[in-house]
Automatic annotation (TrEMBL):
InterPro entries: Aldolase_TIM, Alpga-gal_N_sf, Alpha-glycosidase_related, GH, Glyco_hydro_27/36_CS, Glyco_hydro_36, Glyco_hydro_36_N. Residues 22-244 form the Glycosyl hydrolase family 36 N-terminal domain. It comes from Vibrio algarum. This is Alpha-galactosidase. The keyword Repeat does not apply. Its EC number is 3.2.1.22.
């Protein structure tokens, strides 16, 4: 049919009707063929006391055509051209992608809307470019991507958080009005992760229809989900532009960040599975055959107290425990003795390292480990050589007093001299030293982010991407971690030029369980930095047994974050055990399909990873079990026709308080069929609060 564009992926269809403007008619399960009467059967009635015409919920809804909810585009040209109405003038369609060109000759604007449906992962990508085809400047206030969801998407799950408590989920009704999230913090943020789920009435981890969304952007954003008064509903996401931030000169364009979406008929597991697949094949650039090395990061071990001989001792201990990459965190550069000084002076502190950094790196390498270094390039301390020489490089609004954040300020990356300085510093560090890995930190929000007086979050974010891209071009081997006070800059766009996230500064394993679960809806385990911290967590003062800490760190990209020299030998052996366990299952964890199971005890998290031939499942008891006896573990995602060898891999060794007799199978290897495991399940031991066990299942 001429007016229909049908994009197809493995499991999904995206059907777009192209009238005056393109409008999505269906986004969900794959439709085998489009019926000749489909257009007629989807024609809407016009209700009483409203406009006399049907108003499409188009790919860029227009105020000017009578869409009374959030328009896709807002702006004006000297007070005019503020309600454009577009006409489709061109389309280019292939099996998995479509580009629509729309034009408004009166407002003198052109839109190019790109929609792609990735065949393997079923992930939809959408972005819009607006071009000013008039002579005068056009002030763009908003350009967002809109994707509709069907009427039976009646529940909404959003993400909120804060430092050390990221990726918290919140469920609510999605029936009238809507939901809105705005981020003005200048980075992806701990508070407002740009992701959202909409689902049917009872969607869960394992079941239900769900539509998942993520805006790939590391600056400000607006994310909303609206129910129109006629019942139609949509999600809209784009960059939040400050007044005057985007003024388009003649022929100038603005392109939105990519909005990613996917549909699942198997609950949130289907969403994460699709996003993970998409990330692995379309976003991540990581050598396929290289296992992700286990880290030791020095931060919580020594903070700013750097003594090369001691650091070497730490490295030796780390390698004895099985660590494969040793990272020197904050405190290595000239004058950096605490939080208030030296950011910007990216030269080795020779007082701390009189022999240079080379002997430390050599020692690390001699222990068979890679070396990594912490940097925070976008920042400047007022007490620094850089600030004394270039006070004008600060991103600020002249004449105002700007509050500091962690006693530091942000550099204006759009200033070419500043950009060149940062590139030169990073380039020369990477050239001089054998650095395999940069931990790229960013520890404050942007307040009054002005470049030459104009709002500059957009420009700053693009400049950051450019800096990372140039660096990776010059040093393609280096891996970069996106750490922004842990968890502050986690999104698909930054992941295109980084390799791992520091998921949270919170190493408290109990808190981490929830943070990591929230993050797992979008990101696969191999990019989720997860470290075993000291027994008393530095952020919460809560103490955890090594079982809980080890098991929680094990399922991401594992690391250790403490001083291994000070740890008692017994604890070191325990670290070594969990590191070995991680390595044993690393290939499966980092390539398999992650899932979460619905736990009937709400105080449990049950999650795992499935490969072709095997699965691992972790059960974590977050708090006192609800009942005296645990619910059998029923494994919904198992292959029902297969037979499995089932073994307990790990549970706390200490004597149990809540259980006086262990189920016998814990010391045996069971043989169980997939359908037994799915329907009858496996009876678990009783877990004490804040402990975890792991089961391995292998197909026979
Ligand atoms: C914040 C990071 O999240 C920490 O891991 C650590 O690198 C500190 N900054 C260093 O200042």
């Amino acid at each position: 049919m001429k007016n229909i564009v049908h994009l197809i992926s493995k499991n999904c269809s995206l059907i777009i009707k192209v009238g005056r403007v393109p409008e999505i008619l269906h986004w969900g399960p794959k439709i085998r063929q489009i019926d000749p009467d489909m257009l007629l059967s989807t024609e809407r009635p016009i209700s009483q006391a409203r406009l006399d015409v049907d108003v499409p919920l188009s790919l860029c809804p227009e105020l000017g055509s009578g869409h009374f909810n959030a328009p896709g585009l807002e702006g004006h040209r000297n007070g005019n051209d503020w309600a454009p109405v577009f006409e489709t003038v061109e389309r280019n369609v292939s099996e998995n992608s479509a580009t629509f060109t729309l034009s408004d000759a009166i407002a003198q604007l052109k839109l190019v809307i790109d929609v792609k449906l990735d065949f393997e992962s079923d992930v939809v990508q959408k972005r819009i470019t607006v071009t000013n085809i008039g002579h005068d400047e056009y002030s763009l206030s908003k350009l967002s991507s809109t994707l509709p969801v069907p009427r039976h998407a009646t529940k909404l799950m959003s993400f909120h958080g804060r430092w050390s408590r990221e990726f918290q989920t919140h469920r609510q009704e999605f029936s009238h009005g809507g939901f809105m999230q705005e981020n003005r913090r200048g980075r992806t943020s701990h508070e407002n992760f740009p992701g959202l789920m909409l689902g049917d009435d009872h969607f869960s981890e394992q079941s239900g229809q769900v539509w998942g969304f993520h805006l790939g952007w590391s600056g400000n954003h607006q994310l909303r989900a609206d129910v129109k008064s006629d019942g139609r509903r949509f999600v809209q996401a784009g960059e939040l532009l400050f007044s005057g931030e985007s003024i388009l000169a003649a022929e100038e364009s603005y392109t939105t960040p990519w909005l990613y979406g996917c549909y699942s008929n198997s609950g949130l597991n289907g969403i994460s599975d699709r996003f993970h697949r998409f990330v692995r094949t379309n976003i991540l650039k990581f050598p396929v055959n290289k296992p992700r090395p286990v880290h030791l990061n020095t931060w919580e071990g020594i903070y700013f107290d750097h003594k090369p001989e001691y650091i070497k001792e730490m490295a030796s201990e780390a390698s004895r425990m099985g660590v494969e990459r040793f990272i020197i965190d904050d405190g290595w550069f000239i004058g950096r003795d605490g939080e208030r000084t030296a950011l910007g002076d990216w030269y080795l502190d020779e007082k701390k390292y009189p022999e240079g950094l080379e002997p430390v790196i050599q020692h690390v390498n001699d222990q068979g480990m890679e070396f990594g270094l912490w940097v925070e390039p976008e920042m400047i301390s007022k007490e620094s050589i850089l600030y004394r020489n270039h006070p004008d490089w600060v991103l600020e609004l002249k004449g105002y007093h700007q509050p500091s954040g962690r006693w530091q300020y942000v550099l204006d990356l759009q200033n070419p001299d500043c950009f060149a300085y940062l590139f030169e510093r990073l380039d020369s560090l990477l050239s001089q030293y054998n650095i395999a890995y940069l931990k790229w930190d960013m520890n404050r929000e942007l307040v009054q982010p002005g470049h030459e007086g104009r709002p500059a979050v957009h420009g700053q974010t693009q400049a950051l991407y450019r800096l990372l891209d140039r660096l990776l071009e010059a040093h393609p081997e280096v891996e970069i971690e996106s750490c922004s006070s842990g968890g502050g800059r986690i999104d698909f766009e930054i992941l295109k030029r980084t390799h791992r996230f520091w998921a949270s500064d919170c190493n408290d394993a109990l808190e981490r369980q929830t943070i990591q679960r929230g993050m797992s809806y979008f990101f696969p385990p191999e990019v989720m930095g997860a470290h075993i911290g000291p027994d008393e967590a530095h952020t919460t003062r809560r103490c955890h047994h090594i079982n809980m800490r080890g098991m929680t760190a094990l399922s991401g990209h594992m690391g250790v974050e403490l001083d291994p020299v000070k740890v008692p030998e017994e604890e070191k052996l325990a670290f070594a055990k969990y590191i070995a366990l991680h390595k044993e299952f690393r290939q499966l964890l980092h390539t398999g399909r992650s899932f979460r199971l619905n736990a009937s005890d709400k105080r449990q998290h049950i999650y795992g990873v499935k490969g072709h031939e095997e699965l691992v499942i972790t059960v974590c008891q977050l708090a006192m079990p609800e009942y005296a006896l645990p619910t059998p573990l029923r494994i919904s995602c198992i292959d029902v026709d297969a037979t499995y060898e089932v073994k307990l891999v790990e549970m706390p060794e200490t004597s149990f308080q809540l259980m006086k007799q262990r189920p016998q199978w814990l010391d045996k290897t069971l043989t169980l069929s997939g359908d037994n495991l799915k329907e009858i399940g496996l009876t678990l031991p009783i877990l004490d609060p804040e402990s975890a066990l792991m089961v391995h299942l292998k197909k026979i």
